[in-house]
Amino acid sequence: MSDVPTELGAYSPAAESTSEMERGLPRWTIGMLGRPVLLVVSLLVALGLWVLIARIVAQPVFFPSPLQTWRGAVDLIHQGLLQKSIEMSMMRILIGWVIGCSVGIPLGFAMGRVLVVRLLVEPYVEFFRFVPPIAFLTLAVTWFGLGETAKVVLIVWTTLFIVAISTMIGVLNVDEHKLEAARSLGANELQVFRTVTIPAAVPHIVTGMKLAMGNSFMTVVSAEMIAASSGVGWLIFNSRLYLLTSWIFVGILSLGLLGLATDLVFRTIVRLFLRRYSVKV
User: Fold this and answer.
1) CA distances from 34 to 22, 30, 48, 68 (A)
2) In angstroms, rounded to a whole number, what is the distance separating the alpha carbons of residues 162 and 104?
């Protein structure tokens, strides 16, 4: 008996069964377990691997166990070093990131909207964005000293170019039909910029700000390892002198947790205040 071709929209038991298997199983699994349970399972697996590797190495100086790392964290908290280090690093990151975004966003809009500005500024932006901020550390210390200014300037440098280029790309990718439609309805250039260009560029700006935040963490740690007497980077670098590997692990874990917390706060703010722009984070 030959198979009868199924017309478009006709009932097909095989197709329905496949669809249920593709869609139903993941939803059923997530619905039964839930994201919190899956997260706990993932953490337990990671913790188990950590314990296993620590047992295999059997040298706390090279690879401390979770328990030894926890004891190191308790020691740092009792001494106040961990809290102080986190406070100083986050202060430098936030100040530099905010300043960099405040300069980078207007610069990106100018580069995207004004051809003369883009032709004049873009070559320098493209040139300097490939130079790692840490390469300017010696100059920053020479010019601004060993205080907070040098570290903040490096983070501003890290943030500015990423945000500026992301903003410029967002402006350049605005649909020309939307711009012409707004003009044909009588909108002047300022109204077009406010009602069309800015909403279209917001997702790109948010992406640039998010990437810049991650790079700011890398920059501040590098700077603190070389030219600082406080911060998480200083804590990690200084701990090597006393073979306090558990403290190094605490510093690394602290950076990861700070990054997750910062990203969560950033996502929450974006969802609360930029929902109208359909930003996905």
Assistant:
1) 18, 5, 21, 31
2) 8
Cβ(162)–Cβ(212) under 8 Å?
A: yes
Encoded tokens for 49: 């691997």
Residue 108 sits in a domain whose CATH number is 1.10.3720.10
**Encoded tokens for 110:** 């100018």
Regarding whether 121 and 14 lie in a shared domain, the answer is: no
165 and 244 in a single domain? The answer is: yes
Q: What is the pLDDT of residue 177?
A: 85
Given phi > 0 = left and psi -120 to 50 = alpha, else beta, which region is 34?
left
Question: How high is the pLDDT of residue 148?
Answer: 87
Rounded CA separation 141/45 (Å):
44
The answer to whether residues 16 and 71 belong to one domain is no
Instruction: For residue 274, give Cα distances in angstroms to 138, 202, 210, 227, 262.
Output: 39, 8, 14, 38, 17
Tokens 């004004």 sit at which residue? 114
Mean pLDDT of 197-216: 93
Tokens of 122: 């873009």
Same structural domain for residues 146 and 179?
A: yes
Residue 18 reports pLDDT greater than 80 = no
Domains held by the chain: number: 2
Structural domain containing residue 54: 1-58
Per-chain mean pLDDT for the chain: 85
Residues 125, 187 within the same domain: yes
Q: Which of 31, 58, 85 is the last residue of a domain?
A: 58
Q: What is the pTM of this model?
A: 0.82
Residue with tokens 């003009």: 183
